Amino acid sequence: xxxxxxxxxxxxxxxxxxxxxxCVELTQYYLDRIKKHDExxxxxxxxxxxxxxxxxxxxxxxxxAGKDMGLLEGIPYTAKDMFLTAGVRTTAASKILDxxxxxxxxxxxDKLNSAGAILIAKVNQDEFAHGGSTENSAYQxxxxxxxxxxxxxxxxxxSAAAVAADFGIFxxxxxxxxxxxxxxxxxxxxxxxxTYGLVSRxxxxxxxxxxxxxxPITRSAEDxxxxxNAIQGRDVMDSTTIESTENHQSSKDLKIGVxxxxxxxxRYSEALKAINGLGKKNDVTLPDGDMALAVYYVLVSSExxxxxxxxxxxxxxxxxxxxxxxxxxxxLTRAEFLGPEVQxxxxxxxxxxxxxxxxxxxxxxxxxxxxxxxxxxxxxxxCDVIVTPTTLEPAFKIGSKSDPVEMYKTDILTVSANxxxxxxxxIPAGIxxxxxxxxxxxxxxxxxxxxxxxxxxxxxxxxxxxxxxxxEIIQ
Length: 475
Ligand code: GLN
Hints:
By secondary structure, the protein is of the alpha/beta class. It has a domain at 9-251 and 452-472: Amidase signature (AS) domain (Amidase signature (AS) enzymes). Helices cover 39% and strands 13% of the residues. The chain has 16 helices and eleven strands. The protein has helices at residues 9-17, 23-41, 49-64, 107-114, 157-164, 181-186, 221-231, 260-263, 269-276, 289-307, 326-337, 340-353, 359-382, 404-408, 415-420, 450-463; strands spanning 44-47, 76-80, 118-123, 170-175, 190-193, 213-218, 255-259, 280-284, 385-389, 424-432, 437-445. The chain has an eleven-stranded mixed beta sheet with strand order 1-3-2-4-6-5-10-11-9-7-8. The model has no long low-confidence stretch (mean pLDDT 96). The structure holds glutamine (GLN).
């Protein structure tokens, strides 16, 4: 049997098609990896062994019959527990959805299913995707595969850890303010937040509907492109979706906006050299990070307070049985089954939306959101992409950020892309010498220009090796 460690989609496809490995063997390889290593990583919430092996068997029959295979056919993947999966428990890492078995699947899960990809596990996250370390999960802590004393990032920490630990070829994550890119940076993998609306949110547990994006976490930009191609496009079930767009221009006269004050960090000097080779650089300044963060948390908490109203012990989810009237049913249920960070955001959001405060907080934040979007449009009038670090620092130690605001600050460089709805990717671009942990580079482009982000990331990975380092961390 071929060596199956850290296969790309194209390599796995070739191995399957040429008969070097059967799909059952390939699927079993990941199930065995999970069995062997997940005790120390803690990425998996629900394993789908039986359905995965059954699907793999069908793929093998197709190969034996000599039929042509799509690129994603027989490719095992994991998904954050935000994605509804028919018949498979979906918790959003919350106790309030502890027993929830969805009757239908998210559009993206259906699309991957039709493309023949095989779901092998649902993975951990911060509860309802509120957080940046996966420590807010109501179930378990996930450890960074590079060093298990550190967080994998979040909220899609289970997805990033699963891809870094080779528990599947790719994973699906959600990104409301950085939850695909920040964990991808912390785990030394590639994470794409597409343009808002490019990928359907139907059947994905809602956090903040005007921010939420769905995207792939992979080990290369090439794989991210293949997954995006399979999941993007208009969906009648999500009225905010758009047709896929192809704006990618040739990288010959590419204009790269470099955020100088951030990229002058000596840890990124090698990455900057690689960027120099990709196009013409000019200096740009990003919209004010502190302001973006404040606006983000006001608006996101407001949308959370509204979206999470449905978990009231009646319409959805678990119920506290000791309540004797309706109001108690609401309050006891929500106090018992929602975690502290989720409660904090519901309270903050309700406050920002209440009459008397609405104009001062929510409306003001919406106005600043418009200004940030305009600032991005101005920057993109002069350059094709912007590059910045994904985060100011690499992963931090588990338990080291008990102050919620300290945790919020880890998103300072990622939230702006969600405020403006623009596409952004994080790719590995260095190693922090002090901790030995990976560093991420963020590439951002104008709305609808996802292909440009991916093309630049792919070109960067053609001349650099950081994205391959992940292959050495677990033997
Ligand atoms: N860490 C950010 C937050 O807690 C981002 C979350 C996300 O993108 N889902 O809001």
